Amino acid sequence: MKINNLLIGLGLALTFAGCSKDLKNSPTPPKTGDTTKTTTPPAPTPYTITEDFEQGAKTAYAAADVSLSTGSWNFNDALIGNLAADLKDGTKSVRIRTGDIAMNFDINGLTTLYIKHGKYGTDATSTWQLLMSTDGGTNYTQVGTDITETNTTLVTDSFKVSVTGKVRFEIKKTGTTRINIDDITFKGAGDPGITVGTPDTGSGDTPGSTSPSTPRDVTAGADAPPTSGDNSNLLFGNPSNALSTLASMDNYLIDQKYYVESYNATKGEPNWVSWHLDATNTTNATGRLDDFAGWSGLPAAWYQVESNSYSGSGFDRGHNCPSADRTSSTDANASTFLMTNMIPQAPQNNQQTWANLENYLREQVVAGNEVYIIMGSYGTGGTGSNGTASTINSGHVNVPSNVWKIALIIPKGDGDVARVTASTRVIAVNTPNINTINSDWTKYITTIKDIETATGYTLLSTLPASVRTALEVKVDTGASGS
């Protein structure tokens, strides 16, 4: 492997991209509990992100933007090829003729860039350049010298990055014959500032007035989490002691294979949903399906919330277990679109604040962690795009007043319960279900204890009492770490 050093010592100050904050109109609940913070900030968490070009589709050379797992890329006289002559690690790779491919997004904290490359088919030797921008793509500087492409199999070059700020890259052909590019890997530390995978929220969350879809069940594939032990969805306990009996209709335990939930038949929504998240769940083997449907396994005497039950309500069909947390198969993604996984969620709460939190947790997986997540809601009365409401669907579905989540973050490994200590990072967030909410989820950080007080649940009940007690009152510092 050749090493190419970026001879760029710009020493750029680290900048952060974020949504503007309207604090005047955004209630900020106080952070309670033990607010003691360590004076020594934690070391930035390493990350490894690979763009493998398996998710996108582009079959013509004409210039266009392409949505890939890492974000939007511009292809100019380039396409995504899958022919026998294309050198590829997987089923697809980039084929560049005389143009270029360029990132339409920046990445933070990058230290090393890896690129796999080689000649296309029997084409003659060619050349290409790597260029880098530190100003959002306005100006580019060539990294090193031209690279002569003589390889008939994919080889990997690495490029050291010394810029301490946001960067983006362009790969540009300088010869007239074709080359293949595959598996561009970004390695660095801290928050990369990008989200890997298909975005969880989309126009599909806002319900239309179409006829209801036929209710269906979950099909569990080999990618479904185990039912017990490490990586199981209920490893850290059943918060409300939900039961799978008809007598427990407002605290009904449902194992939907890709997540587990307590369903409230009277309210027509989950009390809480629990799931495990790691890199095996977010492989982007499928995109977002948007196949909303009722769950056919619901007891016959209970009201069936349909795919169109939220129509005209002013509230989104807000996922508890997100679509983008389950992209390992169509079975996995389809499971998240059952209406038993939904709550009426204010559009800005769902599409901005909650989406930003979900993206951040997936970034922790990219950084080498696994995350145990429990999300729930409580109360009655929220404010959507049509104003305040207590119920929708002729009173069959409760509109919660608050939406909460806890996330236990640990390095990828085994023996998960035993590895959790009083110093383990845990994020607890409680947001009002309103449309004027701040997009910054860190404004709503709270403690596990506060959520337990509001809901009556016992969270993380399988942990030793001393560990659970310590974690109950921890206040996370947000995107900068615990």
Account of the protein in words:
With 482 residues, this protein is mainly β. It has helices spanning 330-335, 347-366, 416-419, 448-455, 465-472; strands at residues 2-5, 46-51, 64-67, 72-81, 93-103, 110-119, 126-133, 141-149, 155-160, 168-173, 179-189, 252-255, 260-264, 269-277, 316-319, 342-345, 369-378, 382-384, 387-389, 391-392, 397-398, 402-411, 425-432. Strands 1, 2, 3, 4, 5, 6, 7, 8, 9, 10 and 11 form an eleven-stranded mixed beta sheet that branches. A hairpin with a 4-residue loop joins strand 3 (64-67) and strand 4 (72-81). It starts with a strand and ends in a 10-residue tail after the last helix. Mean pLDDT is 88; it is low at 1-38.
Give the helices and strands as they follow along the chain. Answer: EEEEEEEEEEEEEEEHEHEEEEEEHEHH
Mean pLDDT: 88
Largest sheet data: 11 strands, mixed
> What oligomeric state do these chains adopt?
single chain
Helical fraction equals: under 10%
Structural class, by secondary structure, is mainly beta
Gross morphology is globular
What is the rounded Rg?
A: 24 Å
Given the structure, what is the number of helices?
A: 5
Low-confidence stretches: 1-38
- Report the portion of residues in β strands: 25-35%
- Number of beta-strand segments: 23
What distance separates the N and C termini?
A: 37 Å
